[in-house]
Design brief:
The protein is 47% helix and 18% strand. It is α/β, with parallel strands linked by helices. The protein has a seven-stranded mixed beta sheet, with helices on both faces.
Length: 410
């Protein structure tokens, strides 16, 4: 009888502890085209939750991370939002594609939950599809294109471009904005191949690469992500395209270089909003502590994807503390226009579109021998150009032009 009572008491205490936790939901790709980026998202989120709980949690309660696999599928990401809501989550974040971010963000809005996009780069996320309950921490296609465009116009002027793009929201966004930024809008001179979303066959990669090789272009833009980008880079390397073309990968990630290999990726140019050595460059003590904690936990440097997830959790928690509430409308007011410094220099949640304004960097993958000299052999990126978030992001007038008749977030 005593054991039964003890078991009931423990169960009651456990249930009370669970009920007292504040839950947040992470939508991330554990499988599929973007699984490597998904691993970094979860690692960054867990470090943020652990850090917050070490400091006493939020509003007297511990923070609990719920996570579900999206398999890089917008419909699954949307179903996950329903699941998180049923579990009592107060906020949802993540996604590895813009389609996921838009669809899951819309469902979160219907359920009265904030949604923070991490890897959704298409302009539509905070542009045409922007809404009050959706915030984006990662940079946009506008931001990547502008920092790349300025660097390329200075260092590789009057070049002929060829584009291989994924035919989805982000692929179309980055192609359009990069063409404008580099003066390569004339498709008769600056050709392209459009690849369908999802896994591709080897023949599709080969046809696109053969077309690029025959184009006579000086610059090859691979507007691809995940496994598709990894396979395309290996093929470009094996075909010797880097000997005659400068390859541009608009959104570079640590996981891409790790999976493909430094020899294949060396000298490729792209963009990042954060690298593991950014905190030193920007004199961010909190950023350096994050790097050290990640190193102790995983024996490797963190990438920008992990930093994005960490920042989202910490910023939501900060808004909760400042407003003493987890109510979505109250937190929107606390976030809009808020400036902060966490893992780098100053950032801001812009009020009219909920885009996170932050410095964005053009980076080049270092030579393999340089990378191998690093203790962990992971010092992949050299920052070659920097642009402020205010300069890189679309202006209010440009945002209004994209929005059309709906001139405020609804």
């Amino acid at each position: 009888m005593g054991r039964v009572l003890l078991a009931l008491l423990l169960a009651a205490l456990l249930g009370q502890a669970q009920a007292e936790s504040l839950k947040i939901g992470l939508n991330y790709p554990r499988t599929g085209n973007y699984k490597d980026e998904g691993l970094e998202l979860r690692r960054g989120a867990l470090l943020a939750v652990e850090a917050i709980n070490r400091q006493g949690g939020l509003l007297g309660q511990s923070l609990e991370l719920l996570s579900e696999n999206t398999d890089s599928n917008a419909a699954q990401a949307t179903r996950n939002v329903d699941h998180f809501a049923s579990q009592g989550a107060r906020m949802v974040f993540g996604s590895a594609t813009s389609e996921e971010a838009i669809a899951a963000g819309q469902r979160a809005r219907e359920l009265g939950l904030l949604y923070f996009a991490t890897l959704g780069y298409a302009n539509e996320v905070t542009g045409q599809a922007g809404q009050r309950y959706l915030f984006r921490e990662s940079g946009s296609a506008w931001m990547s294109a502008r920092v790349l465009g300025e660097y390329l116009s200075w260092h590789l002027p009057r070049q002929r471009y060829h584009y291989i793009v994924i035919d989805d929201a982000w692929g179309r966004s980055i192609e359009q904005t990069l063409r404008l930024a580099t003066g390569s809008a004339d498709r008769a001179r600056h050709g392209r191949s459009a690849m369908p979303p999802g896994p591709l066959r080897r023949e599709q990669y080969r046809a696109a690469m053969d077309k690029a090789a025959a184009s006579g272009a000086d610059v090859l833009v691979l507007a691809l992500l995940g496994d598709n980008l990894q396979r395309s880079m290996r093929m470009a390397h094996n075909m010797g395209l880097k000997r005659s073309m400068q390859i541009i990968v608009p959104n570079l990630t640590k996981s891409l270089v790790q999976q493909v290999g430094p020899q294949v990726m060396e000298d490729v140019i792209g963009t990042e909003t954060w690298t593991w050595d950014t905190p030193k460059l920007e004199n961010s003590e909190a950023g350096q502590r994050f790097v050290e904690r990640y190193l102790r936990e995983h024996q490797e440097y963190p990438g920008g994807t992990a930093a994005s997830a960490y920042t989202v959790v910490q910023q939501w928690a900060d808004a909760v503390r400042r407003s003493a509430s987890t109510d979505a409308e109250t937190l929107i007011t606390a976030l809009e226009g808020h400036r902060y410094q966490l893992l780098k220099d100053e950032q801001q949640w812009r009020d009219f579109d909920h885009q996170n304004l932050q410095s964005i960097y053009a980076v080049r993958v270092r030579k393999r021998d340089q990378i191998m000299r690093d203790t962990l052999k992971q010092h992949y990126f050299e920052i070659i150009h920097r642009m402020s978030g205010e300069q890189a992001a679309p202006s209010h007038d440009e945002w209004i032009q994209e929005r059309g008749e709906v001139l405020s977030l609804q």
